[in-house]
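Support request from a user on the community tier.

User writes: "When I paste my structure tokens into the form, the page sometimes reloads and wipes my input. The last time it worked, I copied everything first. Here is what I submitted, just in case something in the input itself triggers the reload:"
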């Protein structure tokens, strides 16, 4: 027998007290039971689209993305450093596996964490993965071998970021409906801030205090950001044990949903190529090393503007209508990148790439939420 979920307090306040039956409540009582249940379900899924706690949750999600996606998007600086220092005897393609695993694991844990979110394990999962991310970053400071960096910075950091980021996206759908794309755009700005600050901090700290203390300072930054996000982010709806198993395969009967999944899969195969290699490629064409790392920060800064703009535009004309042309533009920029042979042209590539690719990440989850019911967001 299924158990009815607890009604949120803001809905309870609208229910008249015993003995004060109003005309409207009499009308509800006189309706068929199916109609009353439908109205109650509509009330349960009515999003406030604002309010103090809603915007605090957005603020927490910005801190969250700063420390997860912002950290992962800084990989280009680490790729360049490892190629010339710790892992200089290895080919760049081997070193790139660390960053590739990071990127893949940011999304892969969503297969499990979504279900755990539905069952009410959001805050324990969030806290545990936050701790794992900080500890893994501290362990990176002690790494000297390729396999150690692969485990700590590839697998551990990637899994921790995935366990943190995926449930947070679902929480925003509790608080926003009409303005969800704008809220998602604001959340995505956090990754751009992190991707701008962390590479600059890393590159400037490395010659001053060395690799170990640089990673320890980054771990401290992550601890502060994750601490704030753990305090600010709150879910609105109570846990629900959704029937149907870990995955909702029923949605794949929809041609639109299946095509969307296939298109995002192929987009991910190339969306981060520029961000990963633009630092290294710049030095190969003669750009000074003391400037080349800024290209990663420039791209991430432009990402922030692109994500914010995409969130605003997505609420007006629809997420897919924004994602399709902007993602196509990102592909054109990626194919144009090899022809950029000097500093000014690489800056142009970084700016355009950041702005156009920002819409893809910013609005990635919006169509998925629209394809299914709110109850299926986790799955």
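"...and here is what came back when it finally went through:"
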């Amino acid at each position: 027998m299924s158990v009815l979920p607890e009604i949120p307090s803001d809905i309870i306040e609208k229910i008249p007290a015993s003995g004060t039956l109003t005309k409207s409540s009499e009308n509800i009582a006189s309706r068929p039971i199916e109609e009353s249940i439908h109205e109650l379900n509509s009330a349960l899924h009515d999003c406030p689209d604002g309010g103090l706690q809603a915007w605090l949750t957005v603020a927490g999600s910005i801190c969250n993305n700063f420390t997860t996606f912002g950290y992962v998007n800084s990989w280009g600086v680490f790729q360049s450093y490892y190629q010339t220092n710790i892992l200089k005897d290895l080919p760049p393609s081997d070193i790139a596996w660390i960053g590739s695993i990071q990127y893949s694991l940011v999304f892969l844990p969503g297969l499990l964490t979504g279900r755990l979110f539905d069952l009410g394990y959001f805050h324990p999962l969030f806290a545990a993965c936050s701790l794992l991310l900080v500890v893994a970053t501290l362990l990176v400071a002690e790494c000297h071998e390729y396999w150690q960096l692969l485990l700590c910075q590839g697998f551990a950091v990637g899994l921790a970021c995935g366990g943190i980021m995926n449930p947070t996206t679902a929480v925003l759908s509790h608080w926003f409906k009409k303005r969800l794309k704008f809220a998602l755009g604001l959340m995505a700005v956090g990754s751009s801030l992190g991707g701008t600050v962390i590479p600059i901090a890393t590159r400037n700290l490395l010659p001053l205090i060395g690799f170990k203390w640089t990673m320890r300072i980054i771990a401290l930054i992550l601890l502060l950001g994750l601490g704030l996000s753990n305090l600010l982010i709150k879910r609105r709806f109570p846990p629900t044990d959704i029937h149907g198993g870990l995955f909702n395969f029923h949605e794949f009967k929809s041609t639109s949903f299946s095509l969307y999944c296939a298109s995002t899969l192929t987009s991910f195969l190339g969306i981060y190529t520029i961000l990963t290699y633009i630092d290294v490629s710049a030095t190969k064409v003669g750009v000074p090393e003391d400037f080349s790392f800024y290209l990663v920060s420039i791209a991430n800064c432009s990402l922030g503007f692109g994500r914010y703009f995409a969130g605003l535009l997505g609420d007006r004309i629809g997420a897919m209508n924004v994602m399709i042309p902007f993602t196509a533009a990102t592909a054109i920029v990626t194919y144009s990148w090899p022809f950029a042979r000097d500093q000014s042209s690489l800056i142009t590539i970084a700016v355009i790439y950041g702005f156009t690719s920002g819409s893809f990440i910013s609005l990635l989850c919006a169509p998925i939420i629209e394809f299914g019911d709110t109850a299926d967001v986790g799955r």
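Agent notes: The reload is a front-end session timeout and is unrelated to the input. Confidence is low (pLDDT under 50) at residues 1-7, 10-31. The longest helix spans residues 180-232. Escalated to web team.
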